[in-house]
Amino acid sequence: MRVALMVPWYVDAFYPQVGVATLELLEKLGVDVAYPFDQTCCGQPMANSGAYREAKATEELFVRNFSGYEYVVAPSGSCVHHIRNKFTAANDTPERRHVRAHVWELPEFLCDVLKVEHFPWAEFPHEVALHVSCSAIRGLDEQAMSERPNDPWFSKPRKLLESVEGVTVSDFDRPDECCGFGGTFAVTEEAVSAAMGNDKLERIGASGARYIVSPDMSCLMHLQGCAHRNRDEFRFLHLAQVLNGDAE
Questions:
Q1: Which fold has domain 127-244?
Q2: In the chain, which residue ranges form alpha helices assigned H by DSSP?
Q3: Domain extents for the chain?
Q4: Residue 203 has pLDDT above 80, yes or no
């Protein structure tokens, strides 16, 4: 299986260890990984701000980079949600439709395509709180929604996390409520965004967990900033780091 790895620009700039962990994890699972070096951004920040004309060239570059692959995998639910469901600035071509239909976020790729059930090289003897982003829950259907209480409960990220030896996942109140990041929302509505992040950290803290794990680094970036300003001693890890066995 040959897979193209898409690393979001903010991960590349601020959290390169997450991109490395994703690459190493896929290779440990026997995947032949390609990394198109001309990749930049999927265009989500511009599109979310209504700047579709400005997003057009970025989306077209993305299509040129990734249209030749059967699978495109990214460690970011919000990016995958944008590409799969809101990737409309570029011209409608067979290549664009192919990319939209073949992009996967890491947890769903591991669960639904590779069907991984165990990570024998990984061990993490800690109590952790799992945060799954709004995009992954409501855009990619990776976890049951609390607003649909009659649906069967499931969580692909939690299933993967609990496959790691030593991990204990702590439950906390209102787990699938937004952390407040929301991309450009965190800039245009800074006070509301920070309040939502602080509320999330308060509920997680009440569970006793000091490690916060998420498959979406953008949420962790926001929560990490809130924790730093509050001088809260949480540790933040992307799911790929735990599954790859390099989390500390």
A1: Rossmann fold (3.40.50)
A2: 9-14, 16-28, 44-48, 52-66, 77-85, 94-101, 106-108, 134, 156-161, 185-188, 190-206, 217-230, 239-244
A3: 2-113, 127-244
A4: yes
Which residue has 């570029």 as its token pair? 90
- C-alpha torsion 167→171→177→182, nearest 10: -20
Tokens linked to 217: 């680094």
Please say if the pLDDT value at position 186 is more than 90: no
List, for residues 24-49, the tens digit of each pLDDT value.
999 999 999 999 999 999 999 888 88
Radius of gyration of the chain (CA): 17
94-101 and 77-85 helices cross at what angle (nearest 10)? 140
Helices H, strands E: what count in the chain?
Answer: 13, 8
- Is the pLDDT assigned to residue 182 strictly greater than 90? no
